[in-house]
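so my prof wants the structure for this chain in the tokens format not the other one, which i didnt know existed until like an hour ago. anyway here's the sequence
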Amino acid sequence: MKNVRIGIIGVGGIAKSVHIPEIQKSKGGKITAICDIDEQALYDVGEQLGIDENYRFKDYRDLIACDVVDAVEICTPNYLHVPMALDAIHAGKPVNVEKPLSINYLEAKKLEDALAVKSIPNMMCFSYRFKPAVRYAKWILEKGLIGKVLSVNVEYLKSSAFWEGRKLDWRFIKKYAGTGVLGDLGVHLIDMTRFLIGDVESVCATTGIVVKERQRIDSNEMGKVETDDYCNFLANIRGGVAGTFVITRCAIGHNNTIKYDIFGTEGVISFDLNNPEILGVCIGEVDVKSFGMHNVKVPAEFYVTQEQTFIDLVNGKECKYLPTVKDGIECQKILDALLQSSEENRWVAL
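here's what i got, hopefully its the right format
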């Protein structure tokens, strides 16, 4: 296995909290170049990682073209994902893209067209697919241990709308973000549902903005918030499965709570990703007849990490349950349908 030389575009919050530490702990991967338009962030992360000054770029195209980069990770605002990924694909370099894939489906489809012409290893950062409870739930579902799935109830709760002093960053501006909690949080639940249960066939949604204005980043003026603070929606999922989803950044008391319940004709699976090593189950005749919902520890075989998976992908290793750009495109269709449903106050078919 070769040592994959990785270039990271965007060294802000998600790069520092997930990508960089996971790559540092991985086998077969090394960060060799970074890019950011923020000179101080570029300097700080470059010093932390010991990146040669010649490989600290302000223009992402220079990083992609760099001869010490084998694969590219894109950790930038949503509107930049597609153009950056397109350039990586055209350069023949494997790419790992943060979610959501884009600001809308038409933009995202450009990547589908490019990959149809030039097949390049690619991955989406649907990071909750890599949680052990989720992968163990997938194994249980594939075994048919809860019978036919009837419904799913899903919650993603955060209080980030009320963070003290939070300003009008790019996530609150439609042309940069596309959506608010839908793309930032909800897309994880959408991908998880496609991964565990099946394709979404139709949706009915309501969205809203709670904090209407925020102080602009570069002045004391107030600016309008343009993206959703919450979204509640119903979904019809392939196979006659009913889905209920609650997504909000206005849930005081919750830092990052994801709860997922799957109800079948012969059992139940439940997990809370604040405890990703635990799965709640009610499976089998004894459990079901005694209403015996109980917790089990996820076996070691279901533990993987996002960045190790990307490195393995680049090295040609088979990666089970890998989320690809194609998954990102399918999720983008659903995000667009949810916005349309909310705006038109009706069910929208995919």
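also thought this was worth mentioning. The domain at 4-127 is CATH 3.40.50.720 (Rossmann fold).
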